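Changelog-linked ticket: fe (ii) ion example.
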Amino acid sequence: MGVLLSLYLAHLALSPGGIGLNLGAGLTGATVGLLRLTFAGDRLGRRRGRGIVYEFSQALPGLAPLRKMGLLFTPQENDMEHVLPPLPYPKNALAPHMSEETFEYHYGKHHQAYVTNLNNLIKGTEFEHKTLEEIVKTAPAGGIFNNAAQVWNHTFFWHSMKPGGGGQPSGALLAAINQRWGSYDEFKKAFQASAVGNFGSGWTWLVKKPDGSVDIVNTSNAGTPLTTADKPLLTVDVWEHAYYIDYRNLRPKFVETFLEHLVNWSFAEANYAG
Ligand SMILES: [Fe+2]
């Protein structure tokens, strides 16, 4: 799976955490790729792309000055820093159900803090060059896991909502929900009860089990289905910081609003199908 020989002809990052374009020719294992597109800082927390990425199996000595100027990076160097992924909608797009002020704190400060903490904690460790998902799946309990999982969980949460959300799922996901709970209304009651009853800080998830059935799972603190056999389909953050600005202590009202006005069923359907 490692890159044996690769020449990245151009790497253009439009903005930190924004869209990156990476054109290149590469030989990766047995696979020869002629065009590679990457989206730096994309929706599930890829990393920053910047400068020109140019790599042979050994760095060419003549390129050292450019490297010193910060214009050349190997893919690994380019991958060292995690960034706050962009929101899939403007900060005010979910108002009045979730205010811009909530996003300024929850996304701009809490989510950003997890990214910053993660970058600081992984320096010089075996996790430094791992992807976010690899870190979540392999880090032991502690700071690196907590911050990596919180980065991933929050990004997943932003995508679990959309402007004009709510309604019902359709297709195979609706069929699976009906099979598990009998009806969508019964699912909503079960999800609401689970989220409201999730003691302390945590997350409530709709997941796909390995047998294709669906279920509701609560996790605590930074816990995430990524470390289990379940596939997350959507989530709601029930840490107090998720709702305190807009709903104060009223978690039931927040969860009800999430289901009525915010939940992004097309995201969950795509995850269920994928
Ligand atoms: Fe949160």
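Closing comment: Example verified and attached. Residues 1-59 have pLDDT under 50 and may be disordered. The chain is about 40% helix and 20% strand.
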